Amino acid sequence: MKNYNIAPIKNLLQNSKNALVVVPQMNVDSIAGALALALALKKKNIDTKVFCPTGTDQNYSKLSGLELLSDTYNASDLVISLDHPLDQIENVSYNDDGGHLNLVIKTKSTSPKIQNDHIVINSSSTADICFMLGDETVLGDKASLTQKGNWVFLSPTNINKAWAKASLIDPDAPFCEMLTFMLPILGLELDLDSGKNLLIGLRVATQSFSVNVSPETFEAGAVCLRATQPVEVQPAFEPTPIENVEKTGSFTPGTNKPNPAPTI
C-alpha cells in the first residue's frame, strides 16, 4: 500500500466545514475520484460541492453522488453559513428594503438566539478547503478561482502549482488509485458508494487492469472491492438454557465431561 506523505493536506482539512472539488477536464477516472472524495468528506459532515465545466452523459450514470456535481460555477456567489441546528429554523425568506436585500431567518420559539459569531459569510470560491484534480488552465477564465482559498493539487502529471498549499503528485497512478490510498490516511471512510466509484474509475483508467498497472494498482482494486462488500452480521450468541446443560448426576459441574464413575 502506498503511504503518501499528506500531512499538509491533513492540516488543511482538520478544521474545515465546507469543501470544493474541481475537475477541469472530464473523464471517468477524474469524476469518479472527485465524487468518491466528496462523498467521503460529506460523511465527515463537511459540506462539499463538485464543479466540472462539462456535463455528464450516460457513461457516468453508475457513479454515486452525481447530485453533488455541477457544470456551472460563479465565483461571485455569496454563501452565508449559520452554526445553528437546522431543525430549529422555522423558515427563510427575503425582502426588498428600499433597494437593499434583507434575508430573514425565522427560528422556532424554542430555539436559542443566533449569535453573531455563529454567522459565517463567504464567497463560493473560498471554501475552507479546495481540491483541484488536474491542470486548472483547462478551465479558461474560471482558472482564476485558485487565487483565493486553501487549495490542494492532485495530479498524475509531475507539475508544480504555486497557488497550491499542498500537493499530491503520483505519475504512476490514475486519480482513483491515488484517492484509494489517500482517503484512509486522511481519516476519511471508504464506504460502499465511494469504493464503488473508485473501482469503476480504476477499471476504466486501466482498461480492466490490463494497461498502466502496478502491484499497487491491483492492491487499490482489492481495497475498493472490499469496501463494496456488504457487512456480515454476526449471529447473536444464544446461550444454551441451563436446564439443558446441568443435569443432575450426568455432568461434572463447570465442564461438559461426564461425572467419573464412583470407585469402591
What's the short version?
This protein is α/β, with parallel strands linked by helices and 264 residues long.
What does this 3D model show about the protein?
- The protein has 264 residues and is an alpha/beta fold.
- Helices cover 25% and strands 21% of the residues.
- It has helices spanning 7-13, 28-43, 175-185, 192-205, 215-227, 242-245; strands at 18-22, 47-51, 69-70, 78-82, 89-97, 100-107, 119-123, 129-133, 151-155, 164-169.
- The strands form three sheets. Strands 3-2-1-8-9-10 form a six-stranded parallel sheet, with helices on one face.
- Strand 1, helix 2 (28-43) and strand 2 form a beta-alpha-beta unit.
- The longest helix has 16 residues, at 28-43.
- The radius of gyration is 27 Å and the shape is globular.
Gross morphology is globular
The number of helical segments is: 6
- Alpha carbon gap, first and last residue: 69 Å
The helix fraction, in percent, is: 10-25%
Q: How much is the radius of gyration in Å?
A: 27 Å
If strands are numbered along the chain, what order do they take across the biggest sheet?
3-2-1-8-9-10
Low-confidence stretches: 248-252
What proportion of the residues form beta strands (DSSP E)?
15-25%
The string of secondary-structure elements, in order, is HEHEEEEEEEEEHHHH
Helix-strand category? alpha/beta
Question: CATH superfamily of the largest domain, please?
Answer: inorganic pyrophosphatase (n-terminal core)
Number of strands: 10
- Total separate domains: 2
What is the CATH C-level name of the largest domain?
A: Alpha Beta
CATH topology term of the largest domain: inorganic pyrophosphatase (n-terminal core)
- What do the pLDDT scores average to? 87
Q: Please give the largest β-sheet.
A: 6 strands, parallel
CATH architecture of the largest domain: Alpha-Beta Complex
